Amino acid sequence: MALTEITDANFKAETAKGVVLVDCWAEWCGPCRMVAPVLDELSHEMADIKITKLNVDFNQKTAQELGIQSIPTLLLYKDGVLVDKAIGALPKPQIKKFIENHK
């Protein structure tokens, strides 16, 4: 499954059903660029999980509501409820375990 870009306008709808990982990122963020290919790989390996990207520069309303202070921040939603959060550029095995803990 390809990564989905989400915005202020569709955030609630995109995180409402199933297990959804939200990558809060920005173009200028080096660690965010390191995590991006890992998330792309996981989106193909874990087809039952929706992996999305929220550009905090272009979607400041949602980023502010979520209290995002550092990026990358990974938010894990299950049926519209935030169940976990991870901050920083984590290696692939840690991100995979982070997701699997809530499947």
From TrEMBL:
Thioredoxin domain: residues covered: 1-103
Magnesium is among the record's keywords: no
Q: Which UniProt keywords apply?
A: Disulfide bond, Electron transport, Redox-active center, Transport
Q: Pfam families of this UniProt entry?
A: Thioredoxin (PF00085)
Q: Does the keyword Plastid apply?
A: no
Q: Single Gene Ontology BP term?
A: cell redox homeostasis
Catalytic residues (positions): C29, C32
Cysteine pairs bridged by disulfides in the record? C29-C32
Q: Where is this site: Contributes to redox potential value?
A: G30, P31
> Record's family?
Belongs to the thioredoxin family.
Q: What is this protein called?
A: Thioredoxin
